[in-house]
Amino acid sequence: MARFTSAHALTQARQHPLIPVFYHAQEDYARRVLAACYAAGVRLFEFTNRGPEAPAIFERLQRFVEADFPDLLLGAGTIFTAEEAGRFIEAGADFIIQPITSPDVAAVCRSYDLAWLPGAQTLNEVYEAHRLGATLVKLFPSAYLTPEYLRILRGPLPQVPLIVTGGIQPTVESLRAWQQAGATCVGLDARLLDTDEPARLTAQVTELLAAVRLAG
């Protein structure tokens, strides 16, 4: 049984529209980054499946989240197969994010009423992901597609919740441009943030989160 429904995840994404996208092989470092982002108001956090230790680190991070930050949704990113999705769901994932759209992963997430955020680019891909039950469609890589592309795509698909992510610069101006173009929320690569000092990271993310909330 998932801790949070897909509907709850969407509500949280709208209320807290900045999602850090993060991976690190050192668990203590990952905990510090996660805690600093939570202190800034982040309520959805993506830990990516980018290294051989990712599933084990994720499982321990999830226990940390459940004990210390029970209202935070910790999701697993860079998921390609139903087997990978199932493994991270068993470890406690609160949502699944893909760089692509996989119908079999969609089916796994639906069976748990778990938020599914598949990747797409074209109008056809975004529509198909939405039709398959995406909680949010991940416009990826967004930096390549630009806010103007999103604004045009929003014309025929105004009802589809969209997360923009992939190379977005962590500046107030950039995030406001994406939000004003129609993004439901923004995924921000934590490698572009000041993750070396927790207090500075909290201050930076607080400013960016306020920017997207204001733009929305």
The radius of gyration computed from the alpha-carbon positions, rounded to a whole number of angstroms, is 16 Å
Flag low-confidence runs.
none
Number of helices: 9
Backbone structural class = alpha/beta
Helical fraction:
40-55%
Overall pLDDT level: 96
> What order do the strands of the largest sheet run in, or round the barrel if closed?
5-4-3-2-1-9-8-7-6
Global morphology: globular
Beta-strand content = 15-25%
- Report the major sheet: 9 strands, parallel
H/E topology pattern: HEHEHEHEHEEHEHEHEH
Q: Care to count the β-strands? A: 9
Quaternary assembly: single chain
Terminal CA distance reads: 32 Å
Describe this structure in words.
- The protein has nine helices and nine strands.
- The protein is of the alpha/beta class and 216 residues long.
- Helix 8 links the parallel strand 8 and strand 9.
Could you list some keywords that capture this structure?
216 residues; alpha/beta; nine-stranded parallel β-sheet; 50% helix
Structure described in brief:
With 216 residues, this protein is an alpha/beta fold. Helices cover 50% and strands 16% of the residues. It has a nine-stranded parallel β-sheet with strand order 5-4-3-2-1-9-8-7-6, sandwiched between helices.
